[in-house]
Design a protein that fits this description.
It is a single chain. The protein has helices at residues 14-24, 32-39, 44-52, 64-81, 89-92, 98-116, 130-147, 159-173, 177-212, and strands spanning 29-30, 96-97. With 213 residues, it is an all-alpha fold. 65% of the residues lie in helices and 2% in strands. α3 packs antiparallel against α8 (159-173). The chain has one domain (14-188).
Length: 213
């Protein structure tokens, strides 16, 4: 970790930022470093939002889960500590297939353009101040950990924590406490869903054991 980070408000919508980011992608591959440079002063939280988008769609892009998932966790930890994040070169410079990533981000524009319509300053106590930043940053970290669980083939296992990250990060940037609360709801929904999966697997194992016995 390095210097203190300033997590400032922004008047630009996420869809506008994402569109500019897509326009900057040139060539057969793109790296996380290039995506972060494209976001620029918009800040780290918007990188969390952008990197959550591939997890909301039924696509498979080699390397994205590891690179984006790790980036979300490390950036959110930096938010908690109010520091600029340190990211390993293997994560920053891992080349991703632009031909697959760009169409995914294009679909993401449609998703976040709907979200932009509802974002506004409200319930400021949930998004303002160092304590709120730390608590909300921990919530993003938690969602990032859930996102990294090796359950990608199970429906909704990536989608639910991905939505939580999108809502938490955009809600913090736009100071929209209601949207941040929505992120907490999807974190809770992920816990319940994973718990149900674990219980179902346990019950199935017990059933097979009783049949074998």
């Amino acid at each position: 970790m390095q210097d203190n980070a300033e997590f400032e408000d922004t008047s630009a919508g996420l869809s506008e930022t994402l569109r500019k980011l897509i326009d900057r992608i040139d060539g057969g591959t793109v790296t996380l470093r290039q995506l972060m440079d494209g976001v620029g002063e918009q800040g780290l939280l918007l990188i969390c939002a952008v990197t959550s988008l591939p997890f909301l769609l039924p696509v498979s892009i080699p390397g994205v889960s590891t690179v984006f998932g790790a980036a979300i966790i490390m950036i959110s930890i930096a938010v908690v500590l109010n520091r600029m994040p340190w990211l390993p070169r293997a994560i920053l410079d891992r080349e991703l297939d632009s031909a697959k990533l760009v169409p995914t981000l294009e679909k993401g524009v449609k998703i976040v353009s709907r979200l932009d319509k509802y974002l506004k300053h409200r319930m400021a106590g949930i998004t303002t101040g160092p304590i709120a930043n730390r608590v909300n940053g921990l919530a993003i970290t938690f969602a990032g950990v859930l996102l990294m669980f090796p359950l990608g083939l199970i429906p909704l296992s990536n989608t639910l924590p991905g939505i939580a990250i999108l809502l938490l990060s955009t809600g913090m940037v736009q100071r929209d406490g209601l949207v941040v609360l929505g992120g907490y709801f999807f974190n809770l929904a992920t816990i319940v869903y994973f718990g149900a999966l674990a219980y179902g697997a346990f019950a199935a194992g017990q059933g097979l054991a009783s049949l074998a016995g």
